Amino acid sequence: QVEFVESGGGLVQPGGSLRLSCAASGFTISAYGLRWYRQAPKKEREVVAEITSTGRTTNYDDSVKGRFTISRDNAKNTVYLQMNDLKYEDTAIYYCNRYPGTYEPWGQGTQVTVSS
User: Fold this and answer.
1) Measured between alpha carbons, how far is 30 from 85 in angstroms, rounded to an integer?
2) Which whole number is the average pLDDT over 54-61?
């Protein structure tokens, strides 16, 4: 059974940092690209960052470029999102999933709240 378990969220002040982790299981992680998504209150879920199956190529939404870094460890079946210089607008629930072939249901996500 495919499963994604996100962790590492929390409450942080503007300018702070967090590192999110997503443990994936139930499929061959090295065969898929992986994405981090986020969903803010009353907004659609959006892609924040993605990384190819080999980890050689990454892409970011313009809103996080230069502040967030996605990485993966296929041996640990885990994808990470290092978030620096956090802003109020980064507040959201963060999810991970694979591509192509996004899996449903989604994991529970991890809440990131940026507040002073």
Assistant:
1) 30
2) 97
Q: How far apart are alpha carbons 49 and 71 in whole angstroms?
A: 10
Residue 12 near residue 18 (C-beta atoms within 8 A): yes
Question: Of 113, 76, 92, 89, whose CA–CA distance to 36 is shortest?
Answer: 92
In degrees and rounded to multiples of 5, residue 40 shows phi and psi of -90, 160
Residue 109 tokens, joined: 């996500």
pLDDT tens readout for residues 7-18 = 999 999 999 999
| Residue 5 contacts residue 107 (beta carbons within 8 Å) | yes
Q: Per residue in 60-102, pLDDT tens?
A: 999 999 999 999 999 999 999 999 999 999 999 999 999 998 8
- Give me the chain's average pLDDT, please: 96
